[in-house]
Every structure is written in structure tokens, then in C-alpha cells.
Write a structure and sequence with these properties.
The protein has about 100 residues and is α+β, with helices and mostly antiparallel strands. It contains two helices and five strands; from the N terminus they run H-E-E-H-E-E-E.
């Protein structure tokens, strides 16, 4: 096998792999946020608020909940940039495209 054939075969293989990875990540896009919380996009864990405050994003809300001994769950309101930390499992889970909720 010549060097040219070797390089051509490997370059084609790398190009095919790149295409498969690109296609896969495009078709199966998942949203990830900072922190180790489990997220429930489009849901508002209504009630059981401990406190609320302004947060830059849902990752900051998750991090605050993780750092708080009392917080078990949270809801982040995207348009208002508000984080609502919860003291217990929510009793009422509402559909809300403006909310991302989660638990630590």
C-alpha cells in the first residue's frame, strides 16, 4: 500500500466519522445546564417555596439549590430570571414553557 492510498483511506474514514457525529448531534440535540441537578424543562414546580431571587440562568439556580441544605427542588422562570427554591417535593406540577424545574 502506498502512502497516498493509506492517507486517502484514512482521510475518507475520518470524514465519514465526522459526518456521522455531526448528523447524530444535530438529530439528537439535548439541552444541558450547569450543575448536577435533574431538569424538567417546561414544568413549574408550584408552591413549597423557601425563597426566591434573581439568577442569571437555570445553572445558577441549580447551584444555589445544591449549596442550600434545605432546598430539595427549584423552579427557574426564564423570562423573569427568577429562581424559586423549594423546601419539599412539589405537590403541584404545572405545564409552563417559561419554566425549568429540577431537583438536586
Amino acid at each position: 500500500m502506498t502512502i497516498q492510498m493509506f492517507l486517502r483511506n484514512h482521510v475518507l474514514g475520518i470524514m465519514k466519522l465526522f459526518f456521522v457525529v455531526l448528523l447524530t448531534t444535530t438529530l439528537f440535540h439535548t439541552v444541558t445546564y450547569a450543575g448536577e441537578c435533574e431538569y424538567d424543562d417546561g414544568k413549574d414546580y408550584y408552591g413549597n417555596d423557601q425563597r426566591h431571587f434573581e439568577a442569571a440562568d437555570v445553572g445558577a439556580c441549580c447551584n444555589a439549590c445544591e449549596a442550600d441544605a434545605i432546598c430539595t427542588h427549584f423552579t427557574y422562570k426564564k423570562s423573569d430570571k427568577l429562581c424559586f427554591m423549594k423546601v419539599s417535593i412539589p405537590g403541584d406540577i404545572r405545564d409552563d414553557e417559561n419554566a425549568i424545574s429540577g431537583k438536586k
